[in-house]
UniProtKB/TrEMBL annotation:
This is Uncharacterized conserved protein YndB, AHSA1/START domain. Residues 12-152 form the Activator of Hsp90 ATPase homologue 1/2-like C-terminal domain. Belongs to the AHA1 family. Pfam families: AHSA1 (PF08327).
């Protein structure tokens, strides 16, 4: 198994609410892109064996060249497991010519009820070596902060 990147955050919302935001197309487009990016989902099939294709666009690509083009990362994501209120397992493949971004990365979103809401832990395994670990973990943390803002505003 390759490298493992991880981030977690407690979100002031019940697990069912957080789980819903992980499986709602418009929600994902809003909160999943980390700071400095915007996202658009091109294909959506929210079931085990289904998945989605997301185009992430850098708002300023000068210091962060994309994996697919100078300004974009395109990723095909398959849903490997969906356990309501507990876990979402995704298999992500980046569209890139550079072999440093090749392979399938597994992203597991684990939800655990706490007194304060839901602890969301994201674990990325088999991360392609071209993805900088510190940048990736900061990106996951940014997405988690966006998710918290999104679901907490809805309560």
């Amino acid at each position: 198994m390759g490298r493992i990147d991880r981030a977690s955050r407690v979100i002031a919302a019940p697990p069912a609410t957080v789980y819903g935001a992980l499986l709602h197309r418009e929600s994902l487009e809003e909160w999943l892109p980390p700071d400095g990016m915007r996202g658009r989902i091109e294909r959506w099939d929210p079931r085990p064996g289904g998945g989605f294709r997301m185009v992430l666009t850098y708002l300023d690509s000068a210091g962060s060249p994309g994996k697919t083009s100078d300004a974009t990362d395109v990723v095909d994501v398959g849903f490997a497991a969906l356990v309501p209120g507990e876990r979402v397992v995704q298999r992500a493949v980046f569209e890139a010519d550079d072999p440093a971004y090749a392979g399938t990365m597994t992203m597991t979103w684990h939800l655990a009820a706490t007194d304060a809401g839901t602890e969301v832990t994201v674990t990325a395994t088999d991360v392609p070596p071209g993805i900088d670990q510190a940048v990736h973990e900061a990106g996951i943390a940014s997405s988690l902060a966006n998710l918290a803002s999104y679901v907490e505003a809805g309560d």
